[in-house]
Amino acid sequence: MKDFGRTSPVGDLMLERLIDGNKRYASGKLTHPNQVFRRWSGPPDRQQPFAMILSCSESGAPQEVVFDCGVGDLFVIRVAGLVLSESVLASVEFGVRTWHIPIVMVLGHSHCSVAAAALRAEDPPSPFGSLATRLRPALERSKRLPGDGVSNAGRAQAQVVAEYLRGAGHAFAGPGAADRLRILAAFLNQGSGMVEILD
Ligand SMILES: [Zn+2]
Questions:
Q1: 125 pLDDT band (50/70/90 cuts)?
Q2: What spacing in Å lies between the alpha carbon of 165 and ligand 1's midpoint?
Q3: 139 C-alpha to center of ligand 1: Å?
Q4: Could you tell me the fold of the domain covering 9-32+48-197?
Q5: Mind giving me the DSSP string for 9-34?
């Protein structure tokens, strides 16, 4: 079976577009493309997002800003802690199938309050508990790594989610999708503003 982690010509081009935008963000040279008001008309499928970003909800990581994109450019799914749920998976499936998006970036970030809280508490109370429970595999994977525990957890969570999506890709993206869809993990360092590609 083909792997959703491999590169494809269109996916690579769109990844380059994301990285270029992020370089502008990190260097303070935003160009704000597609950020003027445009009246939409016709059916909703006229939009054509070029990338999907699955990320944490926190205010330090707004994706249209981090990648210097605008209206209609990105299909963004944000959930506190970057955790998976049935609704998140359904959103990924909807975006991929509806717009044939060639790249799904699962983006963890530094200074994640959700990861930090999960690291502090073994059994936190509900409703946060359900987020912390879903972060456990990432905390387990990263707990012996040297360096900053919160950043390590953020990286690990992006990798755990990306690996899951790659495994489930044939079911949610449809037959033949691995030829045109790349799913990768990445990490936003809020200290530098730079996004690092993990795999
Ligand atoms: Zn976060």
A1: low
A2: 19
A3: 14
A4: Beta-carbonic Anhydrase; Chain A (3.40.1050)
A5: HHHHHHHHHHHHHHHHHHTT----TT
Q: What share of the chain is helix, strand, coil (3-state, %, to 5)?
A: 45, 15, 40
Instruction: Give the dihedral of Cα atoms 105, 108, 110, 116; nearest 10 deg.
Output: 170
| Distance from Cα 62 to the centre of ligand 1, integer Å | 11
Give the tens place of pLDDT for each residue, 129-184: 889 999 999 999 999 999 999 999 999 999 999 999 999 988 888 878 888 899 99
18-51: pLDDT as tens digits = 999 999 999 999 999 998 887 877 776 667 899 9
Please give the radius of gyration of the chain, using alpha carbons only, rounded to the nearest integer. Answer: 17
Residue 110 is predicted with a pLDDT of 97
Q: Cα–Cα distance between 183 and 196 in angstroms, integer?
A: 15
> How remote is the CA of residue 169 from the centroid of ligand 1, in Å?
24
Instruction: Kindly give the distance from the C-alpha atom of residue 59 to the centroid of ligand 1, in angstroms, as a whole number.
Output: 8
Element (H, E) at 118: helix 113-120
Surrounding ion ligand 1 within 5 Å at CB are 56, 58, 112, 114
